[in-house]
Amino acid sequence: MMPAPKPAVITFRDVVVEKNGTPILAGLTLRLSERRIGVIGRNGSGKSTFARLFNGIETPSSGEVGIDGKTGRKDLRRHVGFVFQNPDNQIVYPIVSEDLAFGLKNLKLTQQETAARIDTVLTRFGLAHLRDRFTHQLSGGEKQMIALAGVLVMQPRVIVFDEPTTLLDLCNKRRFMAALQELEQQIVVVSHDLDLLQGFDRVLHFENGTLCEDGPPAPVIAAYVARSQC
Ligand SMILES: Nc1ncnc2c1ncn2[C@@H]1O[C@H](COP(=O)(O)OP(=O)(O)OP(=O)(O)O)[C@@H](O)[C@H]1O
């Protein structure tokens, strides 16, 4: 494992998101500098909307999101990677290596540098055998790992995951969790799978577009479970 870089400081200042006049997130002010951050809450509580703000896929209706004091959308895009729940939303090219090279085009790397970055990530996660495969022929677990690889080649400081294990079977879920453990990047994971968040540094619990609990995993998860008796 590479040495962990200093975590970024991510700030939300009075962030409001509204859609068609309906508030989805209401006046969120937060400072996040932990390495492992989990996000939980009922369906429709605003978790995905919150997650998408980190790298500018979603923009606030008012307020500001920043990373290390920089609030431009370009800064967020450059430093924060996003792994979707469904890798089909992320994988666009027919061959794995082409797909991984896609995001790197903007960085104007040489062909050799591009190939080296791709090979390093694939090798590290035991995916080198997938390099020349057709992306549409990959299994769900393989696709999710390639979607993660596509983010890792960009060398972001922070990676946000929106329910990354929902489509995975038990073995692939375990593999994916092991890969998460190994990442030196700061990670933010939205999940209904509370096991995934054990050992995290901080968990945020959303309810109706507001942050209702914020703290270490054990008490925040216990309070969420207690509230969710159905
Ligand atoms: N473009 C939109 N227009 C109107 N309402 C929206 C839009 N996007 C999201 N919403 C609503 O905002 C609320 C929060 O959605 P969000 O996807 O952030 O919730 P979530 O906590 O991630 O839910 P889940 O656990 O089901 O994925 C939901 O009620 C959703 O219907």
TrEMBL record:
Family: Belongs to the ABC transporter superfamily.
PROSITE patterns in alphabetical order: ABC_TRANSPORTER_1, ABC_TRANSPORTER_2
SUPFAM superfamilies: P-loop containing nucleoside triphosphate hydrolases (SSF52540)
Keyword Nucleotide-binding carried by entry: yes
Pfam (any one): ABC_tran
GO terms for MF: ATP binding; ATP hydrolysis activity; ATPase-coupled transmembrane transporter activity
InterPro entries assigned: AAA+_ATPase (IPR003593), ABC_transporter-like_ATP-bd (IPR003439), ABC_transporter-like_CS (IPR017871), ABC_transpr_CbiO/EcfA_su (IPR015856), ECF_ABC_transporter_ATP-bd (IPR050095), P-loop_NTPase (IPR027417)
PANTHER family referenced in this protein's UniProt entry, alphabetically: ENERGY-COUPLING FACTOR TRANSPORTER ATP-BINDING PROTEIN ECFA1 (PTHR43553:SF24), HEAVY METAL TRANSPORTER (PTHR43553)
Transmembrane feature ranges: none
Keyword rRNA-binding found: no
Record domain ABC transporter: where: 10-230
Keyword terms, alphabetized: ATP-binding, Nucleotide-binding, Transport
GO cellular component terms, A-Z: ATP-binding cassette (ABC) transporter complex
Protein name: Biotin transport system ATP-binding protein
Origin: domain of life: Bacteria
